[in-house]
């Protein structure tokens, strides 16, 4: 059994209000010098067999179909 990871992030041109709220709060918590935060999602998918190109392609199709809204989000797939 292998694990494939899908990281989903808002596209750079899409406003990220949650990330903005976090970056505004950080100085109050003593964290200075952070200029931007982008919030995202991580999915770990376990697949039968090796994390080969076929498994990665299956994860890409899953991400495109179900895990990411490709209008406003981009995703990366990699073996772990």
TrEMBL record:
Pathway participation: Purine metabolism; IMP biosynthesis via de novo pathway; 5-amino-1-(5-phospho-D-ribosyl)imidazole from N(2)-formyl-N(1)-(5-phospho-D-ribosyl)glycinamide: step 1/2
Keyword terms: ATP-binding, Cytoplasm, Ligase, Nucleotide-binding, Purine biosynthesis
Localization, UniProt: Cytoplasm
Enzyme Commission code(s) on record: 6.3.5.3
UniProt key word Cytoplasm: yes
Gene3D superfamilies in UniProt: Phosphoribosylformylglycinamidine synthase subunit PurS
Alphabetical list of SUPFAM superfamilies matching this protein: PurS-like
Reaction catalysed by this enzyme: N(2)-formyl-N(1)-(5-phospho-beta-D-ribosyl)glycinamide + L-glutamine + ATP + H2O = 2-formamido-N(1)-(5-O-phospho-beta-D-ribosyl)acetamidine + L-glutamate + ADP + phosphate + H(+)
InterPro entries: PurS, PurS-like_sf
A Pfam match: PurS
NCBIfam families, per database record: phosphoribosylformylglycinamidine synthase subunit PurS, PRK05974.1
Protein function: Part of the phosphoribosylformylglycinamidine synthase complex involved in the purines biosynthetic pathway. Catalyzes the ATP-dependent conversion of formylglycinamide ribonucleotide (FGAR) and glutamine to yield formylglycinamidine ribonucleotide (FGAM) and glutamate. The FGAM synthase complex is composed of three subunits. PurQ produces an ammonia molecule by converting glutamine to glutamate. PurL transfers the ammonia molecule to FGAR to form FGAM in an ATP-dependent manner.
Self-association and partners: Part of the FGAM synthase complex composed of 1 PurL, 1 PurQ and 2 PurS subunits.
Family of the protein in this entry: Belongs to the PurS family.
Protein name, per record: Phosphoribosylformylglycinamidine synthase subunit PurS
Species of the source: Actinocorallia longicatena
């Amino acid at each position: 059994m292998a694990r494939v990871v899908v990281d989903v992030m808002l596209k750079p041109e899409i406003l990220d209000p949650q990330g903005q709220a976090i970056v505004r709060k950080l100085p109050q918590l003593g964290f200075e010098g952070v200029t931007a935060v982008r919030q995202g999602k991580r999915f770990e998918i376990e697949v039968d067999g090796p994390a080969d190109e076929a498994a990665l392609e299956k994860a890409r199709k899953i991400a495109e179909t179900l895990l990411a809204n490709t209008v406003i989000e981009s995703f990366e797939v990699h073996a772990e």
